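User
New here, explain this?
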Amino acid sequence: MALNINGTTGISGVDGSASAPAVTGTDSNTGINFASDTVNINTGGSTRVTVDSNGRLGIGTSSPSDKLTISSGNLAFIGGTNDAQYIKFGDSGDDDIGNIFYYHGNNNMVFTT
């Protein structure tokens, strides 16, 4: 692989692919590859995480449709303060409009707005 180094563009080289990433460790099919305005994280020769040109993050998909798209799996929240878990919802004017709250101490799940 040829690398280009200069003071304007930094270090550049090949884009790579899921099965042959441009940046790897000792595992040749695990690493990072680049596409047109896209960055992918790959393991075992498959793309696992994608950040596209619109800033959307895809986990389990290389075509995220929202700011965060999780495909083919569950989302787990583990740990937290006093075994409490929160998912908060909001907008630019108020980052705490509603939430889903779970507290392990009494196995309660509460939805609030």
The chain has a mean pLDDT of 83. DSSP finds no helices and eleven strands in the chain. The radius of gyration is 20 Å.
